[in-house]
Amino acid sequence: MIVIKKVNKYICGLHRQYLAKKRIRKRGLQGFRVQDPVAMFRLFETAAIEYAVLRPPDISDTEGDFDVLIDVRKYKDIVDLLIDCHSPTGTKVDLYSVSGGKKLNYRKFPYYPPRFSSYLISQRQKNGDYYCLAPKADFLAYAFHLVYQKSLASGIETGFKEIETTSSSRKYIEKLTQKISAAGLTLDSPITLKDLVDFLDQHNLSMPYDLLCRWALNGDELQQRLEKEQRRLIGPPRWNDQYIFVFMLRENIEGSNSEKVVINEISKTMPILDDIMIPISARKELGAMTRGGNWIQIGTGKTTNPYRIIVAHDQHPEKPREADADFPLVDNVNFALKEELRNIIVENRDTKDSIHGTDNVIEAEYVMQCVDKVLRLNDSH
């Protein structure tokens, strides 16, 4: 009888692990259920996995779940620990990556831009059974959450004359006021979403343009308004009527045959106007400012930042006949060159995502402004 019980327990354990793995493959690490969240956090700490609870379940509007920001450099260890802690009827835990990455995103984007996430995780502190954010970081994270994730649904006064304030049954403004007080900060009353946008801008923590322009595609009137304002600040492209692609090569192909072949292929297709090598000391900063800060390499989990910028002039741009659902911001069918370059890279046994290209001339101008900025900063040091 004892042997049968042990066998049954073993089989149940295997079935539980199977269900957990299946759940991760299909839906990622959001809404994952664990038997004992505190025990899971202890396992994270033992494995030296950095995390910070963003919203614990004692806050009424989370319906008893945990939102957790986590450093995924030990992704395999995290998955193994979650499988061990899994329970179909346990407490729901949403895990979001510090650096972005598949299965750890929100609406296919990092929950917070990686630069912001890195700041937040650096401001964690132990509070009872787990790590959470220090008061100021907690306020900044909540402000970002209200502006970009909740937006008009927060019911907070917008602060923009042309955008009406909506109502909400959730008490976001009360929680926001509490967090401002806990952080020792002062904001004029009544607090508006525009105040939060301005505060994030002042701390260089607002959403980067090349992430915001994609975020706003499915966003509300406020998010679209913020995107238009950022686009206005970028200004007109520097190349007048020339159509420009900006290609960004990643560090993993630096000095490789893929690099040589790709540069040669671009030059055969369109004139190269500029070829810029990014100093090692400036690469991380450029990575933080572009692609929403998400430079995790597919298949490796490693961050490989841009090291070389190729500015190419497409002399024969052609508008798409219809919008592409996968690439809604693309305004030139010759964008397909990027995919051709990626196929060449794969043929050379390197990772497909070793090169990135801009979707349109506004994004090209934004990327070049970021390049100019990091080079100026690097020279000043």
Structure description:
There is one protein chain. With 381 residues, the chain is of the alpha+beta class. The protein is globular and about 60 Å long. The termini are far apart.
List the helices and strands and how they pair.
Blueprint: H1 2-27, E1 32-34, H2 37-46, E2 51-55, E3 66-70, H3 75-85, E4 91-97, H4 114-122, E5 124-127, E6 130-133, H5 135-150, H6 172-182, H7 193-202, H8 209-215, H9 221-234, E7 243-250, H10 257-269, E8 272-277, H11 280-289, E9 306-314, H12 336-347, E10 355-357, H13 361-380
Parallel strand pairs: 3-4
Antiparallel strand pairs: 1-4, 2-3, 5-6, 7-9, 7-10, 8-9
Helix pairs in contact: 1-3, 2-3, 5-6, 5-7, 8-9, 10-12, 11-13
SSE pattern: HEHEEHEHEEHHHHHEHEHEHEH
- What percentage of amino acids are in beta strands? 5-15%
Give the second-level CATH assignment, the architecture of the largest domain: 2-Layer Sandwich
Q: Helix proportion of residues, in percent?
A: 40-55%
Average pLDDT confidence is 86
As for the CATH topology of the largest domain, it is Alpha-Beta Plaits
Which class best fits the helix and strand makeup?
A: alpha+beta
Please tell me what the overall shape is: globular
Largest sheet: 4 strands, mixed
The total count of helices amounts to: 13
Please tell me how large the radius of gyration is.
23 Å
What is the topology, as strand order, of the major beta sheet? 1-4-3-2
Number-wise, the strands total: 10
Low-confidence regions = none
- CATH class call of the largest domain: Alpha Beta
State the separation between the terminal residues, measured CA to CA: 73 Å
Work out the count of structural domains.
3
